[in-house]
Amino acid sequence: MKMQAEVIREGELEKRSDSLFQLWKKKLVVLTKDSLSLFPDGHSKRAKGKELGFGSILKVDCVERTGKYIYFTIVTKDRKEIDFRCPDQSCWNASITMALIDFQNKRAIQDFKSRQELEQAAGTQERRLARAP
């Protein structure tokens, strides 16, 4: 059973469709410390949504500001680009970027600690072997 993650921010964002005409479609968006979930406009969070886990996201890129919107792209680790836009003052791009950076920093600290523990365990094993008769 999956635990409910703490919601950092919830609201509306527009995503460019992958179709030939590349229309902008409104999505209900839920940002947590681990992911960005997208739900079809007009549907509750109980509807089938798409979750972009931060483990699969490389960066938030291509921020451009026009008079009405901020346009940005989420780049996944498999180099897929997902285009979004939000009203100029909503700062969704900043919220997503900060949550992604926080996630990546925590992951880097965990990786570092894991490497240290492995190195310490290997060093202890070497000392035991050196003392063995």
From TrEMBL:
Alphabetical GO biological process terms: positive regulation of apoptotic process
Claim: Cytoplasm is one of the keywords in the record: yes
Record SMART domains: PH
Location of this chain's protein in the cell: Cytoplasm; Membrane
InterPro entries: PH-like_dom_sf (IPR011993), PH_domain (IPR001849), PHLA1/2/3 (IPR042832)
GO CC annotations, alphabetized: cytoplasm; membrane
Any one Gene Ontology molecular-function term assigned to this protein's record: phosphatidylinositol phosphate binding
Annotated PH domain residues: 7-103
Presence of keyword Chloroplast: no
UniProt membrane topology term: Peripheral membrane protein
Alphabetized UniProt keyword annotations: Cytoplasm, Membrane
The family this protein is said to belong to: Belongs to the PHLDA2 family.
PANTHER family: PLECKSTRIN HOMOLOGY-LIKE DOMAIN FAMILY A MEMBER 2 (PTHR15478:SF8), PLECKSTRIN HOMOLOGY-LIKE DOMAIN, PQ-RICH PROTEIN (PTHR15478)
Biological role stated in the UniProt entry: Plays a role in regulating placenta growth. May act via its PH domain that competes with other PH domain-containing proteins, thereby preventing their binding to membrane lipids.
Designated name of the protein: Pleckstrin homology-like domain family A member 2
Organism field: Nothoprocta pentlandii
